[in-house]
Write a structure and sequence with these properties.
Layout: H1 2-25, H2 37-40, E1 45-51, H3 58-66, E2 73-80, H4 86-96, E3 100-105, H5 114-125, E4 130-135, E5 138-140, H6 144-155, E6 159-163, E7 165-166, H7 171-188, E8 208-211, H8 212-217, H9 230-240, E9 245-249, E10 254-256, H10 262-268, H11 281-301, H12 307-330, H13 342-363, E11 365-368, E12 371-374, H14 375-382
Parallel strand pairs: 1-2, 1-4, 2-3, 6-9, 7-10
Antiparallel strand pairs: 4-8, 5-10, 6-8, 11-12
Helix pairs in contact: 1-12, 7-10, 7-12, 7-13, 11-12, 11-13
């Protein structure tokens, strides 16, 4: 028990040092100044939005985009087989603003996931030198595109992805989302995406801005047509191609609710949890075991250990708190208070992995936005 406590403590100390150094290097979009080049010779930006049953947010999201201070933008908004009023909302906006082009998809091409297919179809209709792939529930501050494009041009970047503020209102949903971001930050180490010598890559669905030639060089979304984690895979493909990538915090410029309730979050991870573990059962066991030993067990061990062992576990909990604070400061607003339920959210996360794996096996694949995608097909894409 003492050896385990010491190893766990040393592990989190190393992670904390790495994250502290890495997080401090991350830039914030609000500090970016407008590049004078985009005022004298503004390139065309094509904003491509894929929407399926997004009647709740799509109008507000698009209106926030249409109010951008940067003016040379076209919008390609793809209604992907929606069964609600999403299509009507898009068409209504396109009649009011000539910059908006509405596309209706009635049938999914074989071998594609819906969102990837919709984004690809949007790309085919676009004309911009820069392509911005974004979700239908993201709300933009007026100068977001101007600052993002300025950053890309000033830093000669091929791919820029922004971290939005997760504006989740309900306590347990926010606690779970914050825990997810905590795990994402130490596992993915997103700051390393900004290191051109590192293989670490990142992509966030709320905001993926790419040079058109870079996107075409990696083979477009056709290369990742069956990946449910398309946003991350887009970033990985860019990094593999040797293109310059940057991850920037944009908590003041982008906002998305992501999941309104804890139930929504658990259901939402059905498509990604097993995929993120490469659809391998051994990886599931490693993930569950690793999370339990490193993040839950120290809290439990405090109650049945004493002496140096208990002290080591208490130090581990302190290190987890400090690391969680890093996440709260950079990846989410006002999130530190949710550390109070850290052990519970840890259990919920473990449950999500088990649940997603079980459902994927039972269903023979994943069900995403009403469409079933066979597991064999997903595994085949994963090997590419």
């Amino acid at each position: 028990m003492l050896i385990l406590a010491i190893i766990t403590c040393l592990f989190w100390f190393a992670v904390l040092v790495d994250a502290t150094v890495g997080m401090r290097k991350l830039e914030k979009l609000e500090t970016v100044k407008t590049n004078h080049l985009i005022k004298h010779n503004p390139p065309l930006v094509s904003i491509i939005v894929a929407a399926r049953n997004e009647e709740k947010d799509i109008e507000g999201s698009l209106l926030s985009q249409l109010q951008q201070t940067y003016k040379n933008i076209e919008w390609i908004v793809v209604n992907d087989r929606s069964t609600d009023y999403t299509g009507e909302i898009i068409k209504n906006l396109s009649t009011k603003d000539a910059r908006v082009q509405a596309i209706d998809i009635e049938q999914l091409d074989e071998g594609w996931l819906g969102k990837n297919h919709a984004l690809y179809k949007g790309y085919l209709m676009s004309k911009g030198n820069y392509l911005l792939f974004t979700d239908a529930d993201v709300y933009y501050k007026a100068d977001t595109v101007e600052k993002a494009l300025s950053y890309m041009i000033s830093n000669k970047v091929d791919h820029l992805t922004l971290a939005p503020n997760m504006n989740v209102k309900r306590f347990w949903a926010k606690a779970f989302v914050t825990f997810f971001l905590f795990g994402f930050s130490y596992f993915k180490r997103p700051w390393k995406a900004n290191d051109e010598k590192s293989k670490v890559a990142i992509g966030i669905g709320a905001f993926n801005l790419l040079k058109r030639d870079a996107y075409e060089e990696i083979g477009t979304h056709a290369t990742i047509r069956e990946r449910p984690d398309d946003d991350l895979m887009l970033g990985i493909q860019i990094k593999k191609a040797g293109r310059k990538q940057r991850f920037v915090s944009a908590l003041e410029h982008l906002e998305v609710e992501w999941y309104a309730t804890l139930k929504d979050a658990i259901i939402g991870l059905e498509k990604n949890a097993f995929a993120g573990l490469y659809y391998r059962y051994t990886m599931v066991l490693i993930a569950i075991g690793g999370v339990f030993i490193s993040q839950l067990f120290p809290f439990l061990a405090v109650f049945f250990t004493d002496g140096i062992t208990r002290t080591a576990n208490l130090i581990t909990i302190l290190l987890l708190f400090l690391l969680y604070q890093q996440t709260a400061n950079v990846m989410a607003k006002n999130a530190l208070k949710y550390f109070l339920v850290f052990p519970i959210t840890t259990i919920l996360f473990m449950y999500c992995i088990i649940r997603a794996t079980f459902l994927t096996v039972v269903r023979g694949g994943i069900v995403w936005r009403g469409t079933h995608y066979p597991l064999a097909q997903l595994r085949k894409q994963n090997k590419k």
